[in-house]
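Justification of resources, computational component.

The compute hours requested in this renewal are based largely on the per-chain cost of generating structure records like the one below. Each record pairs the submitted sequence with a full structure-token output. That output is archived, and it is also reused by downstream analysis tasks.
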Amino acid sequence: MAETKTDVLLDDIEATEASLSPQEALKNKINADVLQNIPVTISVEVGRTSLKIRDLMRLTQGSVVELDRLAGEPLDLLVNNTLVAQGEVVLVNDRYGVRLTSVIPTADRVKNL
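The structure output for this chain reads:
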């Protein structure tokens, strides 16, 4: 099975803990447990556009808002408004899902915080 980003982060934490004293390792383990229980918001962005307020106020049912992305381009998967991956829409038991096609490296995500 493919390694997830959570697994990679946990491996990084475990590698760091190996070089620490037992007290420091225990403190970091507790911090890692706390960190894993923090809720995050995941959103999928199809595209963006900019409108003037007058154009926004003219929108009615049936209006079409053109986005900056072409059909077939990957969607952005954001965690707390930070881009973490791109993917494509799939159906999973009559619900929408996203199949990840690329994941942004952890180092690049941290730079964008």
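Residues 28 and 52 are 49 Å apart (CA to CA). Strands lie at 42-45, 75-79, 82-92, 95-103.
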